[in-house]
Write a structure and sequence with these properties.
The protein has about 160 residues and is of the alpha+beta class. The chain contains 6 helices and 8 strands. Strand 7 and strand 8 form a beta hairpin.
Length: about 160
C-alpha cells in the first residue's frame, strides 16, 4: 500500500473527520472497518490500518526493550493509541485527548504518508511547511543516506 496526497478537512461538532474514499480504498477499507489512531510526530496524529500498526509493532520488537528511549516511546505511543471505527460516511471520531494533543480545531490537514495517514492542525502544518520546505533538497539527501547537512558554509571555489 502506497498512500500519497494531502486533503483539507474540517472536524465536525462531534469530533469526526472524513477520510476520502480514494484513501479508504487504497487502505483496503472501502466500506467501513477500523483504524488505529495514535500520537504522531511533530504534534500530529497518525492513523494506521491494522496491518500497518502490526508492522510497526513488529519493528519495535526488534529493538531492545531495555533501552530507555524505547520504553518511553512504547509507553507514550501505545497508552494513548485507540482503535477508531470508520462510520458509513467514511468518518472517524477523534477522541478529545488526542485532538488536544495535536491542537486540532476545526480546520485540519489529512496527509497520506506512504503506509499511514497523518492528521495535522492546519496552522501547525503551515508552520511546518514554512520551516522545512526551503530545505527540501538537503532533507532528501540526508533521508536517502547522503551526508548530513553541514552547519558551516561551503568553502569558496577558486576560479579556473
Amino acid at each position: 500500500m502506497l498512500l500519497t496526497g494531502s486533503f483539507a478537512r474540517v472536524i465536525d461538532e462531534k469530533q469526526r473527520v472524513a477520510i476520502p474514499k480514494r484513501l479508504r480504498e487504497a487502505m483496503g477499507l472501502p466500506d467501513g472497518g477500523a483504524l488505529y489512531l495514535a500520537p504522531g510526530t511533530d504534534q500530529s496524529l497518525a492513523l494506521y490500518t491494522e496491518e500497518s500498526f502490526a508492522d510497526l509493532a513488529a519493528r519495535l520488537e526488534q529493538v531492545s526493550p531495555t533501552r530507555q528511549d524505547v520504553r518511553a516511546f512504547v509507553r507514550l505511543f501505545y497508552a494513548r493509541a485507540q482503535r477508531v471505527e470508520i462510520d458509513s460516511q467514511g468518518r472517524v471520531r477523534i477522541p478529545q485527548e488526542l485532538a488536544s494533543l495535536a491542537q486540532l480545531e476545526k480546520e485540519v490537514l489529512l496527509l497520506a504518508v506512504q503506509d499511514h495517514l497523518e492528521l495535522w492542525s492546519a496552522e501547525l502544518w503551515q508552520r511546518y511547511l514554512d520551516e522545512k520546505q526551503d530545505h527540501y533538497d538537503e532533507i532528501a539527501e540526508t533521508a536517502f543516506g547522503g551526508a548530513a547537512p553541514s552547519k558551516e558554509p561551503a568553502p569558496a571555489r577558486k576560479p579556473r
